[in-house]
Specification:
Two copies of one chain form a homodimer. The first copy, chain A, is α+β, with helices and mostly antiparallel strands and about 110 residues long. Chain A has six helices and three strands; from the N terminus they run ααβααββαα. The first copy, chain A, has a single domain, classed as Winged helix-like DNA-binding domain superfamily/Winged helix DNA-binding domain (Arc Repressor Mutant, subunit A, Orthogonal Bundle), CATH 1.10.10. In chain A, a hairpin with a 2-residue loop joins β2 and β3 (about 65-70). Chain A is elongated and about 70 Å long. The N and C termini of chain A lie far apart (about 55 Å). The structure holds a DNA duplex (30 and 30 nucleotides).
Chain lengths: ~110, ~110
DNA sequence: TCGTTGTTCAACCATGTGGTTTATAATGCA
DNA sequence: TGCATTATAAACCACATGGTTGAACAACGA
């Protein structure tokens, strides 16, 4: 179900290392070693993060010789964004109220 | 930093119980008991989820007599959505291809 | 005042997470 | 062939998470 995909997607995104890896992949496909290199952690540690991203469907891997090339698969991000879009009306209502309050304030105190 | 807020926001959203609680709050403010009631878990369990949502800044609580009324605070959702919007170009490339294919199909079969 | 209700807190448990190290494979190259 | 590179897997550690129970506290109503 989509609900379960949201679980794993949000879970995968809840870590700055993994978000960094996604950003890195946005610039081009990379191997696990290249993905982990900026993060001052062991190769095995980086590989675990890659595995989380992969099982969340956010990346796919294909073998190229002895390397594993990872590529971005943004579809789950899209689902997550669609879910978040649900809430847009809530923050826009607040913004409207805020603007109304500011307008009211201006009318009452025009020289502030 | 915003990065840390993303951590806690995505972490809070990575659980169906908590997403359900947010959806419930979208319909109106609720007490902890009311929030937890649909989820077949102990009150203390529900209160833990509420605490996670609160420390992620997604809800705020105020005392009303002996009850704790929780209200939605959607701002962190907005930040999360803004982060996800970054990636739109990646899936829109794919969508463009899909739309082009559909257009092509319509031209060839105009009476579908 | 007393009981009921809503909540908080601490302790506990099983499991998951983020990280390590180490060993073991698989591949490419001199 | 032998060695360096890249990845995988397993074992381990400290800590967080999701859940429980039970005790205590605060506030409302009879």
């Amino acid at each position: 179900m989509v609900e379960q995909r949201l679980d794993t997607t949000f879970r995968a995104l809840a870590d700055p290392t993994r978000r960094g890896m996604l950003a890195s992949l946005a610039l081009g496909d990379k191997s696990i070693g290249e993905l982990g290199e900026p993060f001052a952690m062991s190769f095995a540690g980086a590989a675990k993060h890659v595995k989380v991203l992969e099982s969340a469907g956010l990346i796919e891997r294909c073998k190229a010789g002895r390397r594993q090339i990872c590529a971005l698969r943004p579809e789950p991000l899209r689902e997550a964004e669609a879910w978040l879009k649900q809430w847009e009306k809530f923050w826009s209502v607040r913004l409207d109220r805020l603007e109304a309050a500011i307008d009211r304030d201006k009318k009452e105190n025009p020289n502030d």
